[in-house]
Amino acid sequence: MLLLITSLTGCWSRKEIPELGIVLGMGIDKTDEDNFLVSYQVVDPGENTPRQSSGNRTPVSLFQARADNLFEAAWRATMTIPRKLYFSHIRILIISEELAKEGIKNVIDFMSRDHEMRPDFFVMIAKGHRAEDILKVLTPLEKIPANNMFDSLRMSEQNWAPTYGLHLDKLINEIVTDGNEAALSGIRIDGELEIAERRLNVEEINSPGKLVIEGISVFKGDKLIGWFNEVESKGFNYIIDNVTYTAGQIECPNGNGDKIAIEISSAKTKVDVKLQNEKPFFELEVDMIGNIGEVACKIDLTKTENINAVEKLVGEKVKTLMETTIKKAQQEYNSDVFAFGDTVYRTHPKAWKELSGNWDKEFPNLEVSIRTNVTLRSTGTLNNSFIQKLPVEK
């Protein structure tokens, strides 16, 4: 019995909350001395509890440390914070654009090696800003900026489509997998940082400084080499079958320049690869279901031929933006962010053995055919707009 009792360790490794600096956001920059500046957004539990909150302090604090490596920085930070940093609840990792261009392999190694870190946080690139500045911005609605960034990226990916939420474990997989390159969403500051980092930023009805998710970064290996703009980013997500819900607009079939807004409520992209003369040929087929959300022109939507015309225009627009994205990835970046190479490996493993060593020369010349199928199920609560009844302007 005594032997059994001594073998029970209980909660010997338990850490009390007052002893911990709970990190929710982390930013990594390169310094002029060629070492790392690591910023930790640490939550103040008391300021997030209504009964304990003083109302005078921000709910998070930013602590920083400089070091030659990220592991040392985490310990060096205790010189400014009287707690041990605790990473199990981290929500967002921001990497500066400057550092990402030099390579992120050291960052990934540290983040994946630490036993306290769960890999379910998002990784983003600070576009045109330092990572530390992104973490300084106070956000409305959500008091903790790291949570704001996490929720905004998740929500925009599900409902808009030009953003791409990538967790650490998937990022590692994209970098190490042959025939696949990584892509990460960008985030920037809209407004003046000097105001955005002050409490005034969340006390006004229209915050002077905001965080905006913008663009998808394109990688080659572990280095950032360029960006997709909003249109290209949406095309990217259609190609990789990552569109859950989105919206867009087309010109009215009558050609007068007026617009019709379209809601896409479902999209599914199937990728098929065939070998022609020992070369891969890709066929992408996108099936979309949607609704008409707004009509700014005179068109009779009770007629099947008009609905068919709108469906055709939607399909053509999606096809064009997908083609534009593929062309940029092939000709400007030579980066297979669509995992076309991995698709060849999975479907034609013998052919991939011959192609893999020369994929950088094969990818820019890949032939890709795209077919779109659009079904519009609803015109909303109206068949035709009241605009149909307005007199013609002279």
Automatic annotation (TrEMBL):
An annotated GO cellular component: membrane
Gene3D superfamilies named in the record: Nutrient germinant receptor protein C, domain 1, Nutrient germinant receptor protein C, domain 3
Membrane topology for this entry? Lipid-anchor
Looking at the record, the residues that make up the Spore germination GerAC-like C-terminal domain are 214-380
Q: What is its main location?
A: membrane
Q: Which residues form a coiled coil?
A: none
Where would I find the Spore germination protein N-terminal domain in this sequence? 14-188
Where, per UniProt, does this protein localize?
Membrane
- Any one Pfam family here would be Spore_GerAC_N
- Which keywords does this Swiss-Prot/TrEMBL entry list? Germination, Lipoprotein, Membrane, Palmitate, Signal
- Tell me which Gene Ontology terms the entry assigns under biological process: spore germination
**Superkingdom to which the source organism belongs:** Bacteria
Q: What family is reported? A: Belongs to the GerABKC lipoprotein family.
Stored PANTHER family: SPORE GERMINATION PROTEIN B3
Q: What is this protein called?
A: Ger(X)C family spore germination protein
Q: Which organism is it from?
A: Chengkuizengella marina
